[in-house]
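Agenda item 2: S-adenosylmethionine complex prediction
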Amino acid sequence: MNAATEQLAALQAYFGLMNMNGAARVYRTAQELGVHEALRGGAGTAAEVAAACGLHEAPVALLLDALCALGTVEATDGCYALAPVANFLSGNYRNLGDEYWDFLPTFLRTGTPLARMDSVEQSEAQYEQQVSALAWMMTPAAEVFAGMLGIGSERKSLRILDVGGGSGIWSLTCAQRDAGSTVTVSDWPAVVDIAAGFARRMGLAERFDAIPGNYHEADLGSGAFDLAIVANVTHIETPEGNVALLRRVRDALRPGGEIAIVDVIPAQGEGRLPASLYALGLGLRTESGRVHSAAALQGYLADAGFRNAQVEPIPAPPFTMGIVVASRGEQPC
Ligand SMILES: C[S@@+](CC[C@H](N)C(=O)[O-])C[C@H]1O[C@@H](n2cnc3c(N)ncnc32)[C@H](O)[C@@H]1O
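Presented output:
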């Protein structure tokens, strides 16, 4: 790298850091001073927002413009309104994961995570609170996923098993594209109830079934499914846990049936920062969760008796995920 290129790279990193820090401070200050809240009742000018929050108009106008650039607020003719994402930011996700990030120094000192979402004791209650928000986040990616698999065209009339399915967003999106497909979600009892609610609201209740319980122990059936979806699950399992689970999934598939793993797959260019933050966040909320490389996932699949594992990135937000599709082999290794 010559001196000019080095300087450019350093400047890019510097301005990137400045922007990320500034954006975080602007967002947090707006939340603390009730700026988003002031717009919740309806659109308003900078003067109206300032008055509602007891602030000065001129700096509030600057803040609102920065929030427009961040995407939480929209402006039309000097009038500001909440952007759609702001609805989402009023709930559990209002603080953008601060409860985890605040714990980072302690995590670094002690090596102990804040939560153990991968433990049998905590998993059900933790995910019960999170899967609906996850569905919202994953919907566009699930649609792209269903398109990539050719659901309704190359692949149709499928009996789909959605392992650790959460809201069922991945499998239900497939069923929505193909009237001949059915969905069975395997997850904790409280979570499959949430998936059943999603199925009802999507008009898919008649084609929905559930296997409540621990997916490491529940009866997933034998040779009963054409396609198994394992989405955002491999990162909460250890390598051994993944191989054991994938073996059970293999047995649940008919000969020639397929598995589609969806997960964060590192090293996708633009996705490098989100993927590494995701891996750090996993450390904060799980005991043994980790981002497994595509090669590692392919290895687990081979060990569990799958073949021809093909990896493809999912070109949809958050641009960190990929699919690994493989076919059930004849004999597990
Ligand atoms: C990260 S969420 C992914 C949910 C969904 N597949 C998605 O992508 O939106 C992981 C899911 O696995 C479920 N899960 C984790 N451990 C489990 C276990 N041992 N048995 C059954 N479900 C489990 C959780 O309840 C949760 O719904």
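Discussion summary: Residues 72 and 84 are 7 Å apart (CA to CA).
Owner for follow-up: CH.
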